[in-house]
Amino acid sequence: QVQLVESGGGLVQPGGSLRLSCAASGMISIYAMGWYRQAPGKERVLVAYNPSQTRGGVIQIDSVKGRFTISRDSAKNTVYLHMDNLKPEDAAVYYCNAGRIDVDGTYKPFDMWGQGTQVTVSS
To answer: Which residue, 39, 66, 58, 43, is CA-closest to 99?
Structure first.
């Protein structure tokens, strides 16, 4: 089990960029890692995940494909979500998570979450 702390959120204009960071207190190399987001009045949804330190990331939401990138630096026990060309509909609280890849190939979260970081997209 690891403790997760997100940072890097803030106010950005449409079309702008942000890089979110998730710092872990322990080794993340043994986990799949994911980024979720939750907009007001909406359920928390998986945005992207990274299966392992030796595999590339996967974007789960069609609307952010080509704009968001997930990556990790296992030496720093940190996971990143780089977001380009941000849109108002991207505004949400973004959460980091540790999980696993299920037998069906999907990302399954453990009960291992950060506190979230707010992303606001507005002119």
So the answer is: 58
Could you state, in chain order, the average pLDDT of each consecutive group of 10 residues for the chain (123 residues)? 93 98 92 96 97 92 97 94 98 97 96 96 95
- Comparing C-alpha atoms, which of 73, 77, 42 is closest to residue 57? 73
What is the C-alpha end-to-end distance of the chain, expressed in Å? 40
Q: Which residue has the tokens 């990274």?
A: 50
The answer to whether residues 81 and 59 touch, using CB atoms and an 8 Å cutoff, is: no
CB atoms within 10 A of CB 120: 15
Q: For the segment 11-23, what is each residue's pLDDT rounded down to a tens digit?
A: 999 999 999 999 9
Task: Specify whether the CB–CB gap between 7 and 21 falls below 8 A.
Answer: yes
Distance CA 93, CA 61 (A): 16
CA angle 33, 34, 39 (to 5 degrees): 160
Beta bridge partners of 107: 101
Q: What is the Cα–Cα distance from 21 to 34, expressed in whole angstroms?
A: 12
